[in-house]
Amino acid sequence: MSEISNQSVLSPVQDKSYLIDFFEPRAKEKLDQYIQSTTQYIKGFLSRKSVHSGKSPEYLRLLHQESMQLGYRSRSLTQALAELKELFLDNTVAYHHPSYLSHLNCPVVLPAVIGDIIASSVNTAIETWDQSTSGTLMEQEMIDWITSRIGLSDDADGVFTTGGSQSNLMALLLARDHYAFENYQLNIKESGINANAQNFKIFCSEKSHFSIQKSAALIGLGYESVVTVATDEHMCMDIKVLKSMLDQSIQAGDIPIAVVATLGTTDYGSFDPLNSIAELANEYGLWLHVDGAYGGCFALTETHKRYFKGIEHINSMTIDFHKSFFQPVCSSVLLINDKEHFRYISHHADYLNPLENKNEDMPDLIEKSIQTTRRFDALKLWMTLRVIGEEKMISYLEDIYDLTLETYEKAKNDQELEFIHEPTLTTLVFRYLTPNVSDETIHERVNKYIKNVLYESGQVSIASTRHEGRFYLKFTLLDPNLSSNHLLSVLDIIKEKGQEYQLKN
Fold first, then answer.
1. Average pLDDT of 332-354?
2. Which CATH number fits domain 124-387: 3.40.50.12500, 3.30.420.40, 3.30.565.10, 3.40.640.10?
């Protein structure tokens, strides 16, 4: 049998010029043209003056319908980009805009964008060593970096996920299976859930993320397995109430298996008392999961280290780098303090990661994930730390916290604004108070008007939530480039719209 040379493999047997559409050696010039053309449109997007276009849903649907009528026949990149600009770039929400103050969508740093482009171009599938080789080592490097920096054990490990919801799901799955195995010698992975699991209970703050309930349902325990614990005046889990509810649950014949501490609640940025919760988790034999999707990166800062006391006692933790470490979606991790617990989700497929091929020098990351095909999302973070550096990235976190505090201090005594609490992270929850009005129905109507009219204009986007049944507005601050003067000017606009409503009504 003749030997096949590298040259013959790389050279096509026949000239198929249409294959230049692919990411392959002959397409280098075309790739360069594509990137240059696309960059011009991205620059145009960055130059946009509004958060979004303010166009109505009806207008956008009509625009989309007109675009669909063109069909999917071949056209030039220039034509496609022009269509994309009109359909998407001119209308979509710009998270980098200084008046985008709504959700946990951070502006992204440039090295992360470059990392994302490279990851997408090379298209590495990170699940097994033979598909990713050094990419495996780079993801593991990022996991080792964050576990050591936040203070987990030498046996800690982790894996990149699609986001906080997936990380929380995996953590509660591990908690369920670990409790069943340790207490009933039940291998749920092999045998499924038995009758005991019907009484499993998971405890979390009433301010915790909805993914805790959703995860409980997805792992077969149901919404009712989640017990929500009241919070104190700072919107943190009340530790005395937690202990009381644990005792009541046991007396009722339930089986507490896990407690979730939230470090950075979505609405308030509040931190549950981790060290006290860890002591109770140890006393009652519970799996302790930390949902740090929002606040987890602040473990790296001097300003927030105190909230992470007791972190060494946790079992698992969620961190979203795409929330508060300026990474493009997706960039999230699930961390566990004992790598052996990943055995509850590991599986060996003969065609992919056969057990006989297991080699610590060439690890298969699929053994730590519920995903099979998985993007090389760790590359963005790796590029960020290499180019910008850890110290400067941490300073950005401290900058946005300082910005939040400064804005609060300057605005808290404004008689037309009511703030719920002094911020502990980077959210401000407040509402406009119509002078000489005590009717809560009117306050809600006015604040809904403010939020909606600002969003519809495309000039300002703010979020909202409810506190004790009342409607409030919310700033989520994730951009270190902002100034408190700009935020105060937005508050002035909010007051103007509140006064405008009064005049109209």
1. 85
2. 3.40.640.10
